[in-house]
Amino acid sequence: MNGQIHFTLNGEKVTSDRHANERLLDVLREDFKLTGVKCGCKEGECGACSVLLNGVLANSCMVAMGSIEGSEVVTIEGYSKTKRFQALSDAYAQTSAVQCGFCIPGMVLACEALLAKNPNPTDAEIRKGISGNLCRCTGYNAIVEAVKIAAREGKGLW
Amino acid sequence: MVTFSNGYLVDNLADALKIRSEIDVTPYAGGTDLMVDAKEDAVYLFLNKIPELRRIYSDEQYLHIGAACTYTEIFENSLSPQILKDAIDYLAAPAIRNMGTAGGNICNASPKADTALIFYVADAKLRICNTSGERILPIEDFYVGRGKTVLQKDELLVEILVPKQGLEHYYYKKVGARQALAISRVAFAGIFTTENGIITRCAMAFGSVADTVLRFRDLEALFVGKSIAEAKSIRSQFIANYEQAIVPIRGRVSAEYRKSVCMNLLEDFLTQNGI
Amino acid sequence: MESISKSIPKRDHFPKISGSAKYVDDLSFEGMLHGKIVRSTVACADIKEILIPDLPEGYFVIDKNDIPGINSVHIVDDDTPVFSDGTVNYVGEPILMVAGKDLKVVNRLMKLIKVVYDEKEPVLDMMKSETIFYQYGYTKGDWETAFREADKIIEEDFQTGYQEHTYMEVQGMIGFYENGKSIVRGSMQCPYYVHTAVKRAMGLESDKVQVIQEEMGGAFGGKEDYPSILGCQVAVAAYKTGKPVKVVFDRSEDIICSPKRHPAKMHYRAAIKNGKITGIDADIVYNCGAYTTLSPVVLQRGLICATGVYNFKNLRVRGKGVKTNTVPNGAFRGFGGPQTFFAIEMFMDHLAKEIGMDSLSLKESMVVKQGDDSATSGKYHFHIPFPEMIEKLDQMSDFRKKREAFRNQTGRYRSGIGLSLVYHGCGFTGSGERDLIKGVVKIVKNTDDTVELLTAGTDMGQGLKTAFAKIASDTLEIPLERIIVQNPDTDRVPNSGPTAASRSLMVVGKLLQRAAEKLKRDWKPGEYQEFVEKYVHPDFMIPWDLSKFQGDPYPDYSWSANAVEVKVDTLTATTEIVGAWGVYDVGTPIDMAIIKGQMQGGFLQAIGYGSMELLDVNDKGVIRNNSFSDYIIPTSMDVPHLETEVVENTYDNGPFGGKGAGELPAVGGAPAYVEAMENALGVNLHHTPFSQEDTMKVLEAFKK
Question: Are residues C305 and C270 in the same domain?
């Protein structure tokens, strides 16, 4: 029996010995120590555990390990090394969009997924893009504003 | 095929059906329902890499939607009917739409399944396969109750067959507790077609109301073959029939609330069609 | 705008956004065990027996018999047990902990433990409770005459529901026991509360207990008292096992057993004479749940706020906090204020209709001004900027015009707009700052001329580290980079008090400013220096007397005016929130972006409280909707147009003119929302949350 699961994690080829039915979230946090991936609910409802899976936004609590064989996973730890992250981070800093910060790594990846598809989103499109990422602190305004700033000041990045 | 502990990953339908015929596995398409209540001893058959389950194509009569197509893929496909896109647009949120699948939505057999409602009203059929062949059945015949379907242990849902004609004139309304990430409290879909002033179809489906999506073909038939004026004259009888037929169950909202919304939307659907 | 108000990047911005910040669940220690707590599944019972399976090597059960000190968590009173003492009083009450290396094994063991109960009839309805935990009351003027001579007396009942904090990071703590010392670290608002509680449960002296706050993923009051309970539990577990023990809840456990906003039932009467309100009489009940926790103080604040922002000459307010067999309720942003403010704001709206005035005109005609007596016979010592706030709100929302236009609508969609005027008293209620907290801060200047601010103040996301650093930097006139602010560790920081009650900036910030001023005067380059500053009670305050419930409960107040506009779909009874506007006076904003973030986030929570946040407790005392898919909080799409503005009204006793801010926006959202629903539906409404089902009931009643 070949138990190992192979995937690319933040640009590096990795393997996991975990059961195929285990949550990607737990593997990222426990085995790879990628604790920027947060757990808020384990039912796909809050988005704190968001990652990019083959380039699209996914809740890592809702992903079983067996399904990611051969896939590409990007967490905030990998994404934070990019220019796009820098643009988003600068914009978030301008609007003080980071309060408790627990939703933020997932939120930033939701913003990335949005901007990758739509580099000049309207307010409504931004709100829709982050609608699966609950934030209890900000009321979302500062985050929406930050996405607009990032889209403007990071022109050409997306 | 790759064998993991607690899971099988296959890249073609034949292998998938072979595993289904030999081993007790839980088919895993998008995972967005299964993983909510992830079982420690679950053995999954991963379907997300099977090309036959991920195609969307059309023939003369039907749009074929592979059971493992994600909501996002269906939404972004130009072949998909607008009524289905509307339902997906109000379904959960982007990350769930990226992973969740139409086939999973159907097989999970929740009466709250947003796309199943559309398949009901659209007269969709399901293509179900096992190693010895296939069967095609109307979606209504697939369900036997909440969480229960006729899918056998050796079978897989392969495609959803959505009729290509007659879905243009529709009505769709989902009622949730909030604007996104909302589980339906009531969902209503209607399709209305006329030819030369005669009603050819007046289909209505009610989601999140009872143990399965509700549709009453016998009641719908009352309007078929009638002119708008004739239908109008029996509108109150038509509504009364539904008043009697719809018996909601209590869930996170009361049965009374569900009933009121169903009847209000039904009446609005008729009114908007001139009845 | 004052120069200090100019926004800067928050101190914790980068670690949090890049995912490198460590929250309690991100920490792991050598030999660490994972604990899970077996909780009561019934609301009221004696425990007859607990059946525990054979435990594998290295797995432990920790219960009341393992507590070296007293089986009691000190909060305000001491009735909360660390682990059940043989009875259980609510569903979710902790009975024992299972701890071991592998969480999966712990979870399996949990399922094998059987608790045998001798069940008793629980009290779930607060109105049927015979146990009154706390009771207070006060009067002003001659309320009896006002009611005796009234032309008309109007009576109404109001009700507010639970609210769950739903901080994104659940409760979590890690306990250690090393060399006779208990160390507890985790997510908490008030390290010294935990310190006091752990000392007592462990039977240790102060210097043998150390409490460290880790990065905190939101709190909103929900981590004010609860960490004292969990802190004691992990401390005892570490003591028994000799290993670090981590307990981090899952979401459903957190919803089941962590404190909530107190549900309230409020009976109001108004005396009307010659078209004027001459007296108010309020009778208030707060559901405390099974143990007292912070209820006395929550109830006090609720009663202080009972007559709102209006100058009633004659009034009586009475209230009690009662026991029920439900989860103990505690602190939640607003701390007792949102309940009574909801009632008085709705009542004023209804009274306006009785008198034949529009609600805003009535409110404006009665709103308090500087120099007026307060309800508790204290004084409003400072300027109250309601006139300018209301004008600003009207400009932003077009309130007056819309309110008029939305009368008597027909058709599928009905619009409505509502408005509320509220305050939040800054700081600990009554004489708490002077008699109980006695805050102390310390500033240390290192030999490299960096300056460290030592307080017990915690940053739960509200930006305290940034605000404190700005206060010190501006006072000392040194660059921000040279100011050090770390998460508090009780071995290093003095007790500046809890991070609660909108007191941190105004009270602790002021102490820091004073200490910084001293350091500046005495600055010795290259030398180590330290300055300690202690709380001084403002001398202008009329002394608070709890037994009479009279005096100044707060030195000053933050004020807000809120408007919410809705559009109701009469077919589905769903409501779209078209707009939400808030105007706030929080003194000088120490950082404008931080303040706006506080106002916007708090306002959205408050709208949730008024509309969708419904916690459903069944007839067995079980919270049914204990998940994120069932306990509904607003998403980014629910209130897309939410605007906030501040008016600047400097408070001289606060640092750079700042005063309390954090809780204020949580107070006025619910009444503004429900008043908007009244405007849309054309009826008087009396409770929150006002749900889709409630709307449907009103619409169906019209049909009949």
Answer: yes
What is d(CA C340, CA C348) in angstroms, rounded to the nearest whole number? 12
Among A23, A53, A129, the residue with its CB nearest the CB of B38 is A23
Q: Is the pLDDT of residue A1 over 50?
A: no
pLDDT digits (tens, 9 = 90+) for C384-417: 999 999 999 999 999 999 999 998 899 999 999 9
User: Same structural domain for residues C240 and C278?
Assistant: no
- Hey, which residues 591-650 in chain C have their CB within 8 Å of chain A? 591, 593-594, 596-597, 600-605, 627-629, 633, 635-637, 639-640, 642
| CA C310 from centroid of its chain's CA atoms | 23
C14 within a domain of the structure (yes/no): no
Closest residue on chain B to C634 (Cα): B178
pLDDT > 70 in chain C, percent: 100
| A137 vs C contacts (CB less than 8 Å) | 168, 218, 461, 597, 601
Domains of chain A, start order: 5-75 (3.10.20.30), 82-153 (1.10.150.120)
User: Contact at 8 Å (CB) between C185 and C284?
Assistant: no
Query: What is the predicted pLDDT for the residue at A2?
Result: 60
Q: Output the domain CATH number for residue C659.
A: 3.30.365.10
Contact B180 C630 (CB under 8 A): no
Which pLDDT score, from 0 to 100, does residue B55 have?
97
Number of domains in chain B: 2
Do residue C85 and residue C177 come from a single domain?
yes
- Domain carrying residue C487: 432-534
Chain B CB within 8 Å of residue A58 CB: yes
Report the residue of chain B nearest C573, measured CA to CA.
B261
Cβ separation of A136 and C167 shorter than 8 Å? yes
Please report which helix (H) or strand (E) contains residue C336, including its range.
none
Q: What is the CATH number of the domain that holds B254?
A: 3.30.390.50
Omega before C387 within 30 of 0, i.e. cis: no
Does C168 contact A76 at a Cβ distance shorter than 8 Å? no
Residue C691 belongs to a domain: yes
Closest CA to A51 of A129, A5, A105: A105
How far apart, in whole angstroms, are the C-alpha atoms of residue C686 and residue C671?
Answer: 10
- Closest alpha carbon within chain A to B44: A21
pLDDT digit string, tens, across residues C484-503: 999 999 999 999 999 999 99
Give the pLDDT of residue A86.
98
**C48: exposed, middle or buried (Cβ count in 10 Å: 0-12, 13-18, 19+):** exposed
Please identify, among B114, B142, B163, the residue that sits at the C-terminal boundary of a domain: B163
Question: Cβ A20–B181 below 8 Å, yes or no?
Answer: no
Higher pLDDT, C703 or C210: C210
Closest-CA residue of B relative to C575 is B178
**Would the CB atoms of B253 and C693 count as touching at under 8 Å?**
yes
Q: Select from B138, B163, B188 the last residue of a domain.
A: B163
CATH number at residue B43: 3.30.465.10
- Mutant choice from A6, A21, A74 vs B, greatest count of B C-beta within 10 A: A21
The per-residue pLDDT for C702 is: 87
> pLDDT, tens digit, for every residue of B69-121?
999 999 999 999 999 999 999 999 999 999 999 999 999 999 999 999 999 99
| Interface pTM, i.e. ipTM | 0.99
From residue C479, alpha-carbon distances to B230, B266, C450 in Å are 82, 67, 10
Q: How far is C217 from chain A (nearest CA, A)?
A: 5
Burial of B240 (0-12, 13-18, 19+ CB in 10 A): exposed
* Boundary-marking domain end, from C484, C504, C534: C534
* Same domain membership, residue B188 and residue B157: no
Q: How far apart are CA C239 and CA B76, in angstroms?
A: 58
Q: What is the mean pLDDT of residues C174-197?
A: 98
Per-residue pLDDT, averaged over C209-224, amounts to 98
- Domain final residue, candidates C485, C504, C534: C534
Q: With CB atoms and an 8 Å threshold, state whether C167 touches A89.
A: no
Q: What distance in Å separates the CA atoms of residue C600 and residue A140, rounded to the nearest whole number?
A: 8
Assess whether C390 and C304 both reside in one domain.
yes
Q: What range defines the domain where residue B94 resides? A: 2-163
